[in-house]
């Protein structure tokens, strides 16, 4: 298990939000933390500590008046730590290369691939052709419904018909180099991990998987390691001391 750091950017600022609260209407989100530092500052910190494979997520839609400010923050962070961070949020086959050229090690995609409630194989093929399989990360952000976890899109508000199952993971692994899985119902709440989801992800053996959502203590980290059989990496947001939380950043920098 490795710690994967994060930089979430909303309305041009580094923030931690309650995931399920994010909407395009007036660019609203319930905030847990708003940083006084910019995204490049965090990228520099992660670089100095040798942390790789973290992710930058742009939380504004392209229609937002804040989009350009958010994008500028993301690009500045990538340039501050070339090759060290992944970039997501509004990534398409048309703009993916821009983020790679700016320094992203990978690009992260959700809504472009999961369109109209289903998998768009046409867009998957476009992404794979544009950036290469090994540099593509599929974000399988999911929420539970009727006993199953389903991938959600559009600021995590819209359910698709695609469940997160071992079969789905195996199928999609042919198109990408990694998975990032947000447990949206607990994202930003530091209320404990989604144990059922962790078990499912840990039982599957394939490409690297990073789990995000609900980690509120080192006990949660250790529980995730146990349930995930050591196969899952972890990202920590609101609970981390960097973002006003109680888990000391230094305690997870060298997590193994």
Question: Quick gist of this model?
Answer:
The protein is an alpha/beta fold. The chain has eight helices and 15 strands. The chain has a ten-stranded mixed beta sheet with strand order 3-2-1-4-5-6-9-13-14-15. The protein has a three-stranded antiparallel beta sheet with strand order 10-11-12, with no helix packed on it. Strands 7-8 form a two-stranded antiparallel sheet.
Layout: helices, strands, pairs:
Layout: E1 6-10, E2 13-17, E3 31-34, H1 39-48, E4 54-58, H2 67-80, E5 85-88, H3 96-102, E6 106-109, E7 114-115, E8 118-119, H4 121-131, E9 136-139, E10 142-145, E11 148-153, E12 158-163, H5 166-172, E13 178-182, H6 195-203, E14 209-212, H7 218-227, E15 232-235, H8 249-253
Helix pairs in contact: 1-2
Walk me through what this model shows.
- By secondary structure, the chain is of the alpha/beta class.
- It has a single domain (6-253), classed as TIM Barrel.
- The protein has helices at residues 39-48, 67-80, 96-102, 121-131, 166-172, 195-203, 218-227, 249-253, and strands at 6-10, 13-17, 31-34, 54-58, 85-88, 106-109, 114-115, 118-119, 136-139, 142-145, 148-153, 158-163, 178-182, 209-212, 232-235.
- Helix 3 links the parallel strand 5 (85-88) and strand 6 (106-109).
- The longest helix has 14 residues, at 67-80.
- The relative contact order is 0.15.
- The model has no long low-confidence stretch (mean pLDDT 93).
């Amino acid at each position: 298990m490795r710690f994967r750091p994060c930089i979430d950017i909303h309305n041009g600022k580094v923030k931690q939000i309650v995931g399920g609260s994010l909407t395009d209407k007036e660019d609203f989100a319930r905030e847990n933390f708003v940083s006084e530092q910019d995204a490049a500052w965090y990228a520099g910190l992660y670089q100095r500590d040798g942390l790789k494979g973290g992710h930058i997520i742009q939380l504004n839609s392209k229609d937002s008046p804040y989009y350009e400010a958010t994008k500028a923050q993301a690009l500045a962070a990538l340039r501050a730590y070339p090759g060290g961070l992944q970039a997501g949020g509004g990534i398409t086959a048309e703009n993916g290369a821009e983020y790679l050229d700016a320094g992203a090690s990978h690009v992260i995609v959700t809504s472009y691939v999961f369109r109209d409630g289903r998998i768009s194989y046409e867009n998957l093929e476009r992404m794979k052709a544009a950036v290469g399989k090994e540099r593509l990360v599929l974000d399988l952000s999911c929420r539970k419904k009727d006993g199953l976890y389903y991938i959600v899109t559009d600021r995590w508000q819209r359910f698709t018909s695609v469940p997160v199952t071992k079969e789905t993971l195996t199928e999609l692994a042919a198109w990408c180099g990694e998975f990032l899985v947000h447990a949206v119902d607990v994202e930003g709440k530091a209320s404990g991990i989604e144990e059922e989801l962790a078990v499912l992800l840990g039982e599957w053996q394939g490409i690297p998987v990073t789990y995000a959502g609900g980690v509120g203590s080192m006990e949660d980290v250790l529980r995730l390691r146990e349930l995930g059989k050591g196969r899952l990496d972890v990202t920590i947001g609101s609970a981390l001391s960097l973002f006003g939380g109680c888990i000391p950043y230094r305690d997870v920098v060298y997590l193994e």
